[in-house]
TrEMBL record:
This is Diphthamide synthesis protein. Disulfide bonds join C123-C137. Residues 17-38 have a biased composition (Basic and acidic residues). Residues 17-49 are annotated as: Disordered.
């Protein structure tokens, strides 16, 4: 009777161990299938296990190295920003007077060179409403630019005085909150209609 019990216990232990072995092999097979299906998740799990095994000192050392790298990168970025800001910020900007001159000339150029501008835009446009490269319309572009330059260069004395009065009016009202167009409309109309 005692020997029977001993054998039963032994058998159940062997049975349990074989079941455990079976379950472990089954888990391994499932893990392998997961590795094949989702290798990144498995790598992340392995990485997490590896991180858990690292001691706190090693993690702290890595963190310190990472922070030092970030500080170095910040210093490099700051140095690059300082090097890039060597040029004065206002070197390539227009003055207020130059901006007003260009604005007034562009208004007159838009009126006087309207047909040239339309020809250039039609040359560049496609059926879909997009624009092709301007070098394909070089002749029309040159005509358009020359027309605008002619407006700026070839002004009669009457047009020059009308331009100067418009410019002076623009300078007077450009710093204020009053609208430039409504305040200087009569001078601008005189400049646009002069020949």
């Amino acid at each position: 009777m005692l020997t029977q019990r001993f054998y039963m216990i032994q058998f159940t232990k062997e049975e349990q161990s074989s079941e455990e072995k079976y379950l472990k092999t089954r888990e391994r097979e499932e893990d392998r299938k997961k590795e094949l299906m989702h290798p990144q998740k498995v790598l992340n799990k392995k990485e997490n296990k590896r991180k858990a095994l690292l001691s706190k000192n090693q993690q702290n050392k890595k963190l310190i190295k990472y922070l030092n790298l970030n500080k170095r990168q910040e210093k490099l970025i700051n140095i690059n920003q300082e090097e890039m800001s060597i040029l004065p910020p206002l070197q390539y900007t227009y003055s207020n007077e130059e901006s007003l001159e260009l604005l007034i000339h562009s208004i007159k150029g838009n009126k006087d060179c309207n047909s040239e501008r339309k020809a250039f835009n039609l040359c560049r446009s496609t059926v879909l409403g997009k624009h092709v490269e301007p070098e394909k319309c070089l002749d029309k572009a040159l005509v358009f630019v020359n027309c605008f330059q002619k407006v700026r260069r070839d002004e009669s004395a009457a047009c020059q005085s009308a331009f100067n009065s418009t410019l002076e009016c623009g300078k007077k009202y450009s710093e204020s909150t009053i609208s430039l167009g409504s305040s200087c409309q009569s001078q601008l109309d005189a400049y646009l209609n002069c020949k």
